[in-house]
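Put briefly, the fold is written as integer tokens. The lines below illustrate.
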Amino acid sequence: MRHCSVQVRGLLMRDELDRYNALMDVGHYLESQTRYDLVYTVQKEIDILIMPAIERLKEKSRQRDRDTEAYLASKAEASRDARFDDDDDDE
């Protein structure tokens, strides 16, 4: 059984996390019984279950990129304003 990343697990809702843990337990049991044909089906269910959390993680990353871009733009604007003010003081 393949675990999802800690970041993805951290973004699972409570009911999703409970189901994820239950499916992992079932999968580990099936592996111990060498029922790999059934493990494949359980793993597919886990992959489907974690898709919303993966999308939430991607959105957090996109939001962080937008925030960084806005910060850098405001910093560049402040720098331009400071240079403009210095030019006015020289005159």
